[in-house]
Amino acid sequence: LVSRKKHPDNTIVTIKKEAVGDGKQRLIAGPCSVESYEQVEEVAKALKAEGIKFLRGGAFKPRTSPYDFQGLGEEGLKILKDVARKYDLAVISEIVSPQHIEMALDYVDVIQIGARNMQNFELLKAAGSVDKPVLLKRGLAATIEEFVNAAEYIHSKGNGNIMLCERGIRTYEKATRNTLDISAVPILKQETHLPVWVDVTHSTGRRDLLLPTAKAALAIGADGVMAEVHPDPAVALSDSAQQMDIPQFKEFVSNLIESGLYK
Ligand code: PEP
Ligand code: MN
Questions:
Q1: pLDDT at 80 over 90
Q2: DSSP 132-164
Q3: For a surface tag, which of 104, 120, 195, 253 has the fewest beta carbons within 10 Å of its beta carbon?
Q4: What's the predicted TM-score (pTM) here?
Q5: What is the CATH number of the domain that holds 30?
Q6: The pLDDT value given to residue 263
Q7: What domain range is 201 assigned to?
Q8: Quick check: keyword Coiled coil in the entry (predicted)?
């Protein structure tokens, strides 16, 4: 169902009147974790000022250590929804459990399935059974074929509003948190008809690499770029080393515009 061979036309996913996959590049930005209404609102104001429509934020955080901040759960989704309503933004947030899919429909405009859950087949099937766009992230050690099959799981249940997100894979290289597999972008565009995003934050884990990798992603044909932004990354409850603060984010967007790759 997701194969380009069978369905040559691009899938365009429309989220709150904003199209993804129509040839115009988009940005998704927001904090790693939702921490408070005020924190999300500060980021939302910056998005609004830059004309960006897609607000991300994690409410259910799949953390490597059980002792790290696990997210605010449903309360976090409520914060995202309230802020997004005030600033007319669309909400993208990760859901980690099939039992939470129905509940999430009230709060989010896009269900994110994270790297750690790319092969959680019950979650994929649950997301495939509802009428809500899904952003599916590539697994930490998933091949492109496995990634495409995960999308197929969602589509097979009836939901064709799927967007793929390359977020780096695990390799022996330690200079970056993960290795951004940039060639996955044109391969996914060739093999599927789905929009393809690149998450520059989790792939690099390095603030200094966000701009060059975002440029590379757009130059190679990604439909959009995801990046994390926090009002004060130094005190962020997760991913403190790699989130941009708001002035850095504004600089990031203006540099992308200047590059001519993002309009
Ligand atoms: C995220 O986007 O919040 C996240 C946890 O990313 P990933 O699933 O790609 O690690
Ligand atoms: Mn993060």
A1: yes
A2: S-EEEEPPTT--HHHHHHHHHHHHHTT---EEE
A3: 120
A4: 0.98
A5: 3.20.20.70
A6: 87
A7: 13-259
A8: yes
